[in-house]
Amino acid sequence: MAERVVVIDYGAGNLASVDNALRVASDGGATITVSASPAAIRNADRIVLPGVGAFGQCAGALRAAPGVTDALTTAVRERGVPFLGICVGMQLLASEGREHGVFHGLDWIGGAVERLAPADPALKVPHMGWNTVSFARDHAALAGVPRADRAYFVHSYRFAVADPADSIATTDHGGEIAAIVGRDNLLGVQFHPEKSQGFGLGVLRGFLRWRP
């Protein structure tokens, strides 16, 4: 039976593009559902959490969606379902976000989300456009993904992980930025794989094949 992949709809994500990219990446091998149903999330085989906007807004929207956070905890933390966070969806893995205040994240990967501060004042914030992703270590979900390829970024804040071992790949924008983080059954990407052409589809295919 095809795996059930749930893209969480909490009103703060680029849902249509993520849904379309996952369908292309799965090539019919998975059932992709965009849903805020706690039952669908609890019973999912894989979960994707997109995110667009401010950290606090997204964290608040996720917690305000009835039953969603509890269902996520059951599926991801208790059942070990493979999880992919995209952009702010990745940042929500952090302990806290420091965007227009301090807001609690899911605290599944230690660290804080902080404003970008490029060493070169000529570099603009937000960091927007194509940038090289450089791998610091191998990861089972990304075995077939080309190294030192480019991905599409749009963000003003970065995830400063507490444990360097949780950083899988980085990019540079006047300083090192976590581009991919991961631990156990958790994977997060700061860039938008749904906008990153072949490289992004490769990341999604790897996630869909991954057996943590």
Structure description:
With 212 residues, the protein is of the alpha/beta class. The chain has a single domain (3-209), classed as Class I glutamine amidotransferase (GATase) domain (Rossmann fold). The protein contains 6 helices and 13 strands. It has helices at residues 15-26, 38-42, 55-64, 68-78, 88-91, 197-209; strands at residues 3-8, 30-35, 46-49, 83-86, 96-97, 103-104, 111-115, 127-135, 149-155, 157-161, 167-172, 176-183, 186-189. The strands form 2 sheets. The chain has a 9-stranded mixed beta sheet with strand order 2-1-3-4-13-12-11-8-9. Strands 6-5-7-10 form a 4-stranded mixed beta sheet, covered by helices on one side. A hairpin with a 5-residue loop joins strand 5 and strand 6. Helix 1 (15-26) crosses helix 6 (197-209). The chain is globular, with a radius of gyration of 16 Å. The relative contact order is 0.17.
